[in-house]
Amino acid sequence: MNKDTIIMWFKGLLAAVIGGVANSVTLIIVNPQDFNLQAGLKNLLTVCATSAILAVALYLKQSPLPSDK
Length: 69
Hints:
By secondary structure, this protein is an all-alpha fold. The protein has helices spanning 3-25, 27-30, 41-62. It has a domain at 35-63. It is built from 3 helices and no strands. The protein is elongated and about 50 Å long. The chain starts with a helix and ends in a 7-residue tail after the last helix.
């Protein structure tokens, strides 16, 4: 397994997490009463975590862990 391949794979995985969280943060604009950085922080973090997990799962489906081949 090539070191550069693993690094690229981890960068893609990190990009998936960042993209998932970034998409969730738009809820602050859409529904600021329930999703904000004060009273709605718990709701916002829950949605961010869920979105990041989903983005990682979709990334792993598209680009599974590189093999030794």
